[in-house]
Amino acid sequence: MMTALALASVLTALPSTGSTSSSINPVLPREFRAAWVATVANIDYPSKPGLPTDQQQAELKRIVDASKNIGLNAIVFQIRPHGDAFYKSPHEPWSYYLTGQQGRAPSPAWDPLSWLVEYAHKQGIEVHVWFNPYRANHSAQKGAQSSNHVSQTMKPYVYKYGTFEWMDPGAKQVQDHSFKVFMDVVERYDVDGIHIDDYFYPYPVRENGQEVPFPDAATYAAYQRSGGRMSRSDWRRHNVDTFIERVYKGIKQRKPWVKFGISPFGIYRPGTPAGIQAGIDQYEALSADALKWFQEGWCDYYTPQLYWPIEQTPQSFPVLLSWWNSVNTKKRHLWPGLYTSRTNPADGNWKASQVERQIGLIRAKGENMGHVHFSMKSLLNDWNGVRKAMQENVYLEPAAPPASPWLDATPPAVPTVTRSGSTYRMRSSDRDIRWYAVMTKVNDDWRVVYMGSQPTFDASRVASGTPMAFFALDRTYNSSKPAIINR
Q1: Could you tell me if 36 and 17 lie in one domain?
Q2: Which residues, at least 6 apart from 443, have a Cβ–Cβ distance to it below 8 Å?
Q3: Are 371 and 402 in contact (CB under 8 A)?
Q4: Domain that holds residue 132
Q5: How many domains does the chain have?
Q6: Residues 7 and 58 occupy one common structural domain
Q7: Sheet of 456-458, strand order
Q8: CA-CA distance, 295 to 291, in Å (whole number)?
Q9: Do 332 and 442 fall into the same domain?
Q10: 278 with 415, same domain?
Q11: HSE-up of residue 212 (Cα within 13 Å, Cβ side)
Q12: Residue 9 — very low, low, confident or very high, per pLDDT cuts 50/70/90?
């Protein structure tokens, strides 16, 4: 028989932002905890091209289950390695890395992105989809390009450069096509974020000791003939700036709650801040004005790739972290990228404590709680004990991603809670609830025992008389005040 525990029976309702403390106030812990899942060259998923569908699903399930077990709350899943798709796209071919032949659909048919979104959300895991906006081919791909691939449909604007192929960011046809691809996913899939990394104009290629120019002279000449007066460097940066602003605004026009994240190279420019050294100037070489995008607010979170150990003074992790914090004038989320894969004994051999200490430095800033691991493989393989370290030393309880008040600052209503035996069901009068959370109080400590999209909680392992706090969180992670009852 259902026992109503509606608002009249709620003992108290208290604010729910911040981090857990020993207090009478239940406070939801907040931190974005994610890992990149790279599909290009089968880095993280799937283990090789052309696996049977059931094995592909099993490997993806393993990634989600491991993420939950480790304590992560988000996956950044690469769905467009280079003009191809890890989902059923009307605009681009299926990826070689999925099926073993570009353009060939999985058999039996399935949509990895649709499957991932549904399964991950049930586990309380966000899904951010990761696009490469301009890369058109990679040396790891085998076989011919599909007839509907950009290398075939936009041949005048796709160039061989080094061992890869690249779309021309200065071509309107490229900009429009990539924008269409991004927005199609925003519109059709219930994703939590759109994500791009550090590949804009390509990293420079060198041959015989000389830098090879990126072959966009014809596009720049056409710009000049139309009356354009910017230098080639400024024009290239303008092309990237325009695309990033367009994507951010396009997302917000369609689904304002979907976050847009950018993960640039971790050093803005050599010598910035003072004493920092870099082998590349992304501002010039990649045409990436990463500071401008951040300070214009054309993102909801920023993930500069701080891929150096704390002790490496010329690329000092703490100095770079402090600098990025200092230029966060729009108060967006700053969730650095960590090079967790350097724990690989065959490539870097970092101790797990290096990653622990880096997370500790991020947490010490206290304002923007979050980080992203590159990549999932390091955690799955537990290189140098890094998975164990995250589970036992770093992620001591589940956490909700921080709220994004510039998107929405209105908290949802306190949930109504009903009980049937040991099962508690939460209901909210708000329509945009994404997650539910439950905390229990043992002695003076409130601890998270459940977080996910399902509105039910099995309290069979909770001792009778234990205070329980039930929360509803909306799509931008505003939290309701808790409904508090005793078990």
Answers
A1: no
A2: none
A3: no
A4: 32-394
A5: 2
A6: no
A7: 3-5, 416-420, 423-427, 456-458
A8: 6
A9: no
A10: no
A11: 14
A12: very low
Q: What is the four-CA torsion angle of 273, 280, 138, 88, rounded to 10 degrees?
A: 20
Mean pLDDT of 71-89: 99
230-283 residue pLDDT tens? 999 999 999 999 999 999 999 999 999 999 999 999 999 999 999 999 999 999
CA 334, 339, 344 angle in degrees (round to 5)? 160
Residue 272 tokens, joined:
């910035």
Please give the pLDDT value at position 448. 96
Output the CA–CA distances (angstroms, integers) from residue 44 to 38, 92, 226, 380, 387, in the order listed: 5, 22, 45, 9, 15
**DSSP string of 302-318?**
E--B--S-TT-GGG-HH
Q: Determine the Cα–Cα distance for residues 260 and 240; give it in Å rounded to an integer.
A: 15
The two three-digit tokens of residue 30, written as one number? 């907040």
* Nearest-angstrom CA–CA distance, 335 and 33: 9
Alpha-carbon torsion (186, 189, 191, 194), positive or negative: negative
Residues of the chain with pLDDT > 90: what percent? 92
Residue 399 included in any domain: no
What is the reported pLDDT for 118? 97
Residue 63 makes CB contacts below 8 A (sequence gap 6+) with: 37, 44, 45, 75, 376, 380
Residue 13 has pLDDT above 80, yes or no: no
Query: In the predicted model, what is the mean pLDDT of residues 424-444?
Result: 93
